[in-house]
Amino acid sequence: MHRIQHDNGVVSYTFESLTGLPVRAHVSTRHGGVSPAPWASLNFSITRGDEPDRVQENFVRFCAAVGVDPTERVRTRQVHGTAVAKVDWDNTGEQFNATDGLITDAVGLPLLLFFADCTPVLLYDPVVHALGVCHAGWRGTVNGMAATLLWAMQAAYGTNPADVRAAIGPSIGPESYEVGEEVYNMAQAKLHHPDRFFRYPNGEDANPYFDLWQANAAQLHEAGVPEDQIEIGGIDTAQNTTDFYSHRAERGQCGLFGVLAWLA
């Protein structure tokens, strides 16, 4: 991924694999905002104790940095589910409740989702010029959120998975994501060949570590997206709290960063 320092102090990351394509996607960091600790500083969450006015100012600063009108964004209230909403310019400024994915073919319409360890997945179809973005924590991952986003694009726009460029953004990585019995058992029940996504650095009798990056990438590949068209950003939020919020590493005392993406 590319790290960009903007003139107003905001820092964002972009995906290498999308360079030169008519799609834009910026992952915000915690830099360039006005929120004090523990949300310092570019926090987008109003549910973790920060003041709404500060959160709004943070978002305005982020949008100014990346060249987007903050009033035009379409956002979600995520619930770790697999619901996907199809949106267009009629939905400008709306929030979709109980929704973890958005798709559009409306050029210029900014899609916004929020994260603090869960996995951002972005899909771009250059043939029909359509975009999808979703939020996949462990529940979303084991329930097939990434594949569901792809299927929604197929149904709405006729997307051929072989054409799709996929990007998996910053989230808690396989070296940091220790999980318990509930996560492991659900993965065993729902994922295809699930053991390939677990490792035991502390021994077979200790808790496993779950690789969300590979689990989401495998879903997309098995649904028809070529492996060489899937970028894994490889940034572990739990090991990079200088740039990103991490619910796990910061014990819930943190904000949320965002992914803002639109068709150019």
- Percentage of residues in DSSP E strands: 15-25%
The average pLDDT score comes to: 97
In terms of quaternary structure, what is this?
A: single chain
Number of self-contained structural domains: 1
Order of helices and strands: EEEHEEEEEEEHHEHEEHEE
Strand order of the largest sheet: 1-2-3-15-8-4-6
Q: In CATH terms, what is the architecture?
A: 4-Layer Sandwich
Rg (CA only): 17 Å
CATH superfamily: CNF1/YfiH-like putative cysteine hydrolases
CATH topology term: CNF1/YfiH-like putative cysteine hydrolases
Number of strands: 15
Main β-sheet, in a few words?
7 strands, mixed
Tell me the helix content.
Answer: 10-25%
> Low-confidence segments, ≥5 residues, pLDDT <50?
none
| Separate helix tally | 5
End-to-end Cα distance, whole Å, is 19 Å
The coarse overall form would be globular
The secondary structure category is alpha/beta
CATH domain class name: Alpha Beta
Keywords summarizing the entry:
single chain, alpha/beta, CNF1/YfiH-like putative cysteine hydrolases, six-stranded mixed beta sheet
Structure notes:
With about 260 residues, this protein is of the alpha/beta class. The protein has a single domain, classed as CNF1/YfiH-like putative cysteine hydrolases (4-Layer Sandwich), CATH 3.60.140. It is built from 5 helices and 15 strands. Helix 3 (about 145-155) packs parallel to helix 5 (about 210-220). It starts with a strand and ends with a strand. The mean pLDDT is about 95.
